[in-house]
Amino acid sequence: MPKRILFYFIGFVLLASLAYYGFSRWKDSREKVDLWSLVPENAAFVVETNNHTALVEHLKETGLWENFSMLPFAQRFEDNLAWLDSVAPGNQRLARFLDKKNILTSVHVVGKSDIDFVYYVPVKSVGEHRFLRTLTENVNKSGFFKEDSRDYQGFLLTNIKNTQLGSSFTYFSYHNNIILSPSPVLVEEIVRRINRDNPTSLAAEFKTTNYLNQPGVFANVFVNYRALPEVLGLFVQEDLMPQVRYLASFCRNGMLELKLERDKLFLNGFSNPENLKDSFYARLQPARAQPVQVKEYLPSRTAMLFHFGVEEVARLRDKTKVKEVANAPLVDSLAHTFRKEVALAYLEAYNINSSPEKIVFARMEDPKRTLNLLKQLQAKSTSGSTNALTEQYGSYTLQLLHVPELPSQLFGNLFAGFEQSYVVQVDNYLVFASEMATLRSLLDDISTESVWGKSVAQKAFLEETLQEGNFSVFLNTVNAWYILSRYMQDESREDLLQNANLIKRFNQVSLQFSKVEQQYYTSFLLRRQERTSGPDKDGFEEELVLEFKNRLTSRPFAIQNAIDRSREVAVQDSSHVLHNVTASDKEGWTDTLSSAIRGTIQQLEVGPEKKLRYAFATFNRIYAVDNEGNDLENFPFNVSDSLQLQRLSVFDYEKNGNYRLLVDDELGNLYMYDIRGNGIVGWQPRRMDYRLASAPQHLRVGGRDVILVLLENGYVYALNREGETLPGFPFSLRSPVTSDAVARLGADLRKSEVTVVTRYGEVVVFNLQGRVLRRQQLLRPSKRAMFDLVPENSGKSFIIVRQDQGKVAVFDQDMKEIFEKRYVTSAPKLVQYFHFGGDNKIYAITETGPQKTYLYDAEANIIGKRSLESSQPVTIYYNEASNNYTLYKVFRRELKKVSFRLE
């Protein structure tokens, strides 16, 4: 009996122990886990979603998914899902298992060169457990996968390798959650984190924040700004990382909501400031946010903008270095005169090898006081030993400051890179640039309203951004393409090129922070420029056909309307009548001339009202007419009947309307006149011994005027206003030249570079001291191959064209071949290059024999899938608002206006 009782007692204890063990395991499995507490602290981003299917569908609607799915890591993920789905049991497919549950995805930098992901997936029901068990069994049976397991600190880690793709992932189960990642290192880190008691959630400061409860929100996105530099460091060159780390120290973390609309991605929410010592926030300590008023002066060709909206701009300075600079008290006083707004703009570059132009805009509280302090600083810096260099450019005064790195002294290290500073006052802004030419170009953009504040596309973008901010970054990925390429690490540049379509397609990007109480409202916008209705892609639509009595003999000359400055054209017929065609497709003024126009039509702003007038040359006359075709006073100028003028060039040295009209004849003689017809001393004529290869160019460098002249025999001249040859000139390129030169102006003659290409394909770069800096020979397949340099419509960039027995090859500024095409005839082709910013590039090639014009886009695809009948070079205008192009062409007696668009 006692033995039986003892046996029953032992059995009861065993059953109780098993029951308690089973209950404990059941209780542990039912214990709810905060998945956020499992995420390692080095996560750069964490994305929480609760509707996988809806997110993918909306990504597809925006067009992002099409490009995102082409990325290598996304393709690998999709491929693995497809393989797993193929062995999933019954109709319980994997996508169905993943849908309608809160899933976390954390993004990490692994090692020094990789990004990897961890997925945290809840298992919510018995049915889902059964699905996973069956899926695991099917994986074991499948020949597509190889599975092995190992114990790590008390957890069973399972590794599954796809034998077909060579990829693998590791997972383990924890309290009804599956944690998996392609990186076993990250999985092990999570296990170690679990084994610590009560790990703190990475997003503990946003515990009560859940945007998923709001309509139209597809994800919560946690941003760890402290880890952000590690992500950017995978792509950006090391010398830029100090600035990246500094800017990233504005905030420490943030929680943002993800919203998607067609062609737009929004991330909005709140970020917490970074309170660490020496952080960007600690230095700036911004109060009230400020509007981006500088948009009225930012050129449309801006690629990247850093905007700081802060009451005291001087806070941007490094206080430890303030006292170290020369004339520190004066610099300090000057820095405190700038208030509310300072911006650093990087302008579009035209090749990967050139540094982008930079412009600083600083808003002055009291312009008179600022300029007075600036004058004092200039005087102390030069000690009277150097004369101040100033230049009058229209109503603006440009000045060189002899204070190295002045912007960085005033606004901090982010504004470094100005060995010398040229400044100009534009309303309440003091504008800094490292080159005088950059300021001139900026003032031209402001004059022609080619600025953000007047751009339809940019205004539409800015309306969707925060109207006030403390710190903002704006990026146009198309304009910034060469800048991104230049500062990318070599190993990342290939990825950049492979994903060019995605990056350029959503070209408008903004990241902004605006103070709200103790946090910063944060807005990230990724936007594709709006497309309005118009001609179908790759299709031509005729908008106008005008037939004249006589055959048209000139190209459609691009001009602006004298009244409203709308874009129109003028054409000349075989009876030498010049016809104006307005932007509203009506015939305007006409003018009967003595002979054919030579060169192009130039436009002048005449009188105090700056009314537009038209100037051009025929074989022996110089004309200037008003908007009704009437000759201006003193015109036309009659030159000798024995002369055969080649072209007219118009110079306005100081942008004050004091024009100089320069013509060259077939013998290489140069004649210069003022606007009243008086001959200029030294130019009656200025003999050049050989015919000119292209129109003379006026260059303004360091307050000096230089007239650059290329001769067909390869000699290069640089002349001053009086026609005198500058030291170092002339010199010979050693080969003939028949095309233009393109100049990149520097601080002085030595730093100003000019690029030309000889007929035999040698690219020569020289400075304005007459010194050849570089020579590079392009491939010349045969002795018949000839080369020309073709500037684009604004003259800021160029292409090089090689023609060889019916084949035309086009090279970019880095001497890389863009495309090569073969045509019907071997006769020389007329090649034009139009660049309207970013990837808005069009190459027009006209065959003079068959009278056909072919248009190609930036990727060398033929536009319209056909040629156009055309006997002359074409004129193309770009409408930024509608993303449409308007082309004018002539053929026989017809002028046609054609519209088309590119995607």
UniProtKB/TrEMBL annotation:
InterPro entries: WD40/YVTN_repeat-like_dom_sf. SUPFAM superfamilies: NHL repeat. It comes from the Bacteria. This is Uncharacterized protein. It comes from Pontibacter ruber.
